[in-house]
Amino acid sequence: MTEILLGEFLSTIAFHLFAYAPFLDHLRVKKRLLPVLLALIEAAHLSAFALLLSLGLPFAVCKLVSIPISMLFFFSMVNMERGKVAFVYAFAMAYALMVCGVAGNLAPRLFPGAPGESSWQYGLLTLAVFALTAPLMLRYVKKTAQMVFETYAPRVWSTVWLLPMLTVLIVMLFTYGKSESLLALFVRILLMLCILLSYSYVIESVRGFQRHVESEERIRRLEDLTAIQASQYAYLLNAMEETRRARHDLRQHLAAIQGCIDSGDMAALSSYVQAYGASLSHETPRTFCKNAAVDAILSYYAEKAEKSGLRMEAEFRMDSRCVIPEPALCVLLGNLLENALEACSRESEPGPIRVRAMQTGESMLSLTVDNPCSRRPRWKDGRLLSEKSDGFGSGTESVRIIANQYNGDARFEWRDGVFYASVMLNP
Length: 427
What we know:
alpha+beta, two-stranded antiparallel ribbon, 7 strands, about 65% helix, about 10% strand
């Protein structure tokens, strides 16, 4: 029993380390607790394995039954969309099958008297083959995992993981217990090659899908910008017309004033000037920002808020030159303000929407939008869920994508009935 457990330990511990490597920044526990976590997982795996052996089950059956225990621990410890986790984990399983196949094929040749996969010699060979191949495979899986993590397509990831996972499970079931067979070794190596090719194809396809979704989002926001610009154009035309009428009316007022002066009737002149002053509008155009495009966005949403009975407070300390392209900043700001207005429209007693921006030097911009929100928003895997559908919020995801494109960060928090959106850009 001891020798069997030692062989099982040597042949599994490396793959537990390998499986967790791409997810070190996405664990539900702190990194320094990972060694303790792995020790507990391995202990649970070996305990279940020993229990099944003591019940008289065959070695191969015990191994197959104990595998789901490790998988259960793994999926519970990683904080990410389950589809992405399963997609990357399938690669680790395929790699483990290939290494075990190589070790199982070499063991009877190097150790003729060893009892196959249940020996410590097999476990030691597995560890040796892993050590030789791990650097290259680890580099590949980390790069692949990073592309998976950065690709936002929840509906795709929720199903695409089935293809590699089912392929691995089928190969595992049909080659298990046949490690000495050259055919089984060939099938496992072929599986590894298929996984490598299919991962490249799937990831590129999903990223293409994401680019398509992002393009649609940009088009939608550009349409919004066009509507805003049309509104501003109409406002300018109206202001020009009012200026023309004011210049025409001014001649009449000047003639009336000159008449009072010529007649020496100072009382009539004073009364006329007071009446004329009272007829003038006290409203003055408000400028939020030195940048014309950003100011147009702020003016549009401030007017939209006012029509909805809401108040928007804006404080922008930024130059006329944007630190990122104007369309990207306008899309980002438009998404945040649109979400804030929608959230306030659902409140019985909406408070003010506060918008602040601070530019540091010529390359850093921080932007915050705070709005009342009595109901706690829904999160899943660290991302906000939409209030309109079952998926993730497209507006907040668009903000996150733009922030990542310009070496920044986007954070969304809810505390004490207020929703806080913060974006840092550092291109």
